[in-house]
Specification:
The complex is a heterodimer. By secondary structure, chain A is an all-alpha fold. Chain A contains 11 helices and 2 strands; from the N terminus they run H-H-H-H-E-E-H-H-H-H-H-H-H. Chain A has a domain of 207 residues. In chain A, helix 1 packs antiparallel against helix 8 and helix 1 packs across helix 9. By secondary structure, chain B is mainly α. In chain B, helix 3 packs parallel to helix 8. Chain B is globular, with a radius of gyration of 21 Å. Classes of the chains: A mainly alpha, B mainly alpha. Chains A and B meet through helix 4, helix 9 and helix 11 of A and helix 6, helix 12 and helix 14 of B.
């Protein structure tokens, strides 16, 4: 294979790895939006806290990785539930601006608390996975990208299957589809809201740990949460399949832009801004995204 | 106690300050504002200038969000546009400040128009995300369009001067900032009473109904975006002459969020609430700083918790106000006034 082709494939592979993480976060985001019509600006902070939970379990309690993952997910689930109950529920049905601002406020609180508890230092996870990189012919995938990616894909599959086959999953989909009808069929809507938030917190925690293993953790890790917006808008705010597709597309585009355009403009990083340009174009052309429900509304 | 307000002419009915008591208080406030720089120390002056700039910017945001109901997460970006335009005109072309600040406002106004266009098709959450994208993209342009913006090193600006009077101290900047801020405060107060201001409120309350009674939605929304970003641009321009330097870090997303917090805490749609909100949101971190400073004597590491603590308190204020006091400080103030004027008869 020529060097150019290898370079392209390498970019595609790291794009898919990034995209897998975006997809995982976006999935939790979409679940909350579908159930409660709330856009969660604290997604990145949920990731950051999840990563710190996992890191603390590993470094302070010396738990093995699988246990730490479970601890982090369980703690995140509780946090998600508490957030929904204490902060979001009083604002149910309020103006959009209130709901947006309250999640922004939450983000500030979480960030500050994390800094107080864990300090602002930069931490890394202890070595978890085999160090040897994965070699696919001429392609090399660093081990610290490959194994976390597997974790992300596993989590996506798990949530997807739970949605498809469990009783609660069906109830959640029913609620998203038609709240009144679901309520009439005896589904406890409040429980579903609470579950949606804990599910979102759980997926964010796994994503946070994955990002933490790849690039280390600090209270600033939450900044990556902003990247979910291009993903969910491109995929469609209320489509889980869209979140997956959007994640991979944005991840790949970002890496291609970083690989091909950045070297042409010295010192300029297009990589950060490309997802948001895609976001603007999507909103102009197709605001409901690739797979979202088309809401007909004349303005 | 005021139990009625008898008007004999249209002019007195339309006056902004309608009772003698209000006029006296306003006169006293103005006098206090003029005397302030002669008695206040450097740090207080710095804070006052900061509040003036922030209040002006937040006022614009309140026109957009509180009056018109359009959400913007990119307000800091418009401040940035105004600031850079002002700085470039002043430092490269030597344009005097009384021209470069309005020019910055005009350019920000144009940027607001462009960003406002999507509001034709999208609203609510989608609009919030669109303006978030605008924030990210503008910030990126400030950092990367090095030939114009000076990149991360930014631009330096010489102090403004008017007929040989150089505005090079904080006390002098105070007069510039306050004059502009008060003028815009009056403009915003009047704006609400005009045809356009009423159209803004109609769009906020029910867009379809507004359209039916003959409000052109698109024009109204665009105008709201333009006015709002014009205010931001002017605030940005003042910021330039206040700090004498402009860098991309001056206009991050967190500044947009701070403006939003001011609007929420002060009171959505309340002009005087915006002022209360600005003062409150600026003084609370100062209070925290003072407290941690005192706590350091008994607990030496207290200082290291200052910044995270400021984050926590900032977030808590937003959350608590939204849940328990959604109409903000303006409503708290009104309630207090009512309590004192009705006391002891209010139950």
């Amino acid at each position: 294979m020529s060097d150019g082709l290898v370079h392209l494939l390498q970019l595609l592979v790291s794009g898919v790895v990034t995209g897998g993480i975006y997809a995982l976060v976006a999935m939790g985001f979409v679940v909350v939006y579908k159930a409660t019509r709330v856009i969660n600006f604290a997604t990145g902070e949920f990731m950051m806290l999840g990563a710190f939970f996992g890191w603390s379990a590993m470094s302070a309690l010396h738990a093995p990785f699988a246990v730490a993952l479970l601890v982090a997910v369980a703690a995140a689930a509780l946090l998600g539930m508490a957030t929904e109950r204490l902060v979001l529920r009083p604002l149910l049905g309020q103006r959009t601006i209130s709901v947006i601002m309250v999640t922004i406020g939450l983000a500030a609180i979480f960030k500050g608390l994390a800094q107080i508890v864990w300090s602002g230092d930069y931490r890394t996870f202890p070595a978890i996975f085999p160090r040897a990189p994965l070699e696919l012919g001429p392609l090399i995938i660093p081990s610290r990208q490959f194994y976390p990616f597997l974790v992300a894909v596993g989590a996506i599959l798990l949530v997807g299957l739970a949605f498809r086959f469990t009783r609660t999953g069906v109830a959640m989909r029913a609620t998203a589809d038609d709240q009144m009808a679901a309520f009439g069929m005896g589904i406890d809507i409040r429980r579903i809201f609470s579950l949606s938030w804990s599910l979102a917190a759980m997926t964010a925690a796994v994503a946070g740990i994955v990002v933490g293993i790849i690039g280390g953790i600090s209270p600033q890790l939450g900044a990556i949460g902003l990247r979910t917006f291009p993903v969910v808008i491109l995929g469609g705010l209320d489509s889980i399949g869209g979140a997956l597709a959007g994640g991979v597309i944005i991840g790949v585009l970002e890496n291609l832009a970083g690989g091909y355009i950045d070297p042409l403009l010295d010192g300029t990083s297009v990589k950060e801004v490309v997802p948001f340009v895609v976001l603007v174009i999507t909103l102009m052309v197709r605001p409901y995204g690739l797979f979202g429900t088309r809401e007909v509304e004349r303005l | 106690m005021l139990i009625g307000n008898y008007q004999e002419s249209y002019a007195s009915d339309e006056a902004i300050f309608r009772t003698p008591a209000t006029r006296v208080w306003m006169g006293l406030a103005l006098l206090a504002a003029v005397l302030f720089p002669f008695v206040a120390g450097d740090y207080l002056l710095y804070l006052a200038n900061l509040m003036g700039v922030l209040a002006l910017s937040a006022l614009g945001l309140n026109i957009l969000i509180g009056f018109t109901g359009q959400i913007s997460l990119g307000h800091a970006a418009f401040m940035g546009v105004g600031a850079y335009a002002t700085a470039i005109l002043a430092s490269r072309l030597g344009v005097p400040f009384w021209l470069s600040i309005p020019a910055g406002g005009a350019l920000a106004c144009g940027a607001g128009m462009v960003v406002g266009v999507p509001s034709l098709r999208i609203k609510g959450l989608y609009l919030a995300i669109a303006t978030l994208a605008a924030q990210v993209i503008f910030e990126w342009i400030f950092t990367n369009w090095t030939s114009v913006t000076g990149g991360i090193r930014g631009l330096n600006v010489a102090p403004a001067s008017l007929a040989g009077w150089r505005i090079d101290t904080d006390a002098r900047a105070y007069f510039l900032i306050m004059t502009v801020a008060v003028a815009h405060y009056l403009f915003a107060t009047n704006l609400r009473r005009t045809r356009w201001g009423r159209a803004f409120v109609a769009v906020r309350d029910r867009d379809v109904a507004a359209e039916i009674v003959g409000v052109n939605l698109f024009r109204t929304k665009i105008l709201a975006f333009m006015v709002s970003s014009y205010f931001a641009g002017i605030a940005g321009g003042l910021w330039v002459y206040f700090t004498k330097v402009v860098t991309p870090e001056n206009f991050p997303l967190s500044l947009s969020i701070q403006c939003l917090a001011i609007v929420i805490v002060g009171g959505l749609g309340s002009i005087k609430g915006t002022i209360y909100g600005t003062v409150f949101m600026t003084l609370v971190p100062e209070l925290l700083k003072a407290t941690t400073g005192l706590a350091r004597q008994v607990w030496p590491t207290a200082q290291s918790y200052l910044f995270p603590l400021q984050d926590v308190v900032f977030g808590l204020l937003i959350v608590v106000f939204l849940i328990f006091e959604p109409h903000g400080l303006a409503e708290v103030w009104n309630r207090m006034k009512r309590f004192f004027s009705l006391w002891p008869f209010e139950k």
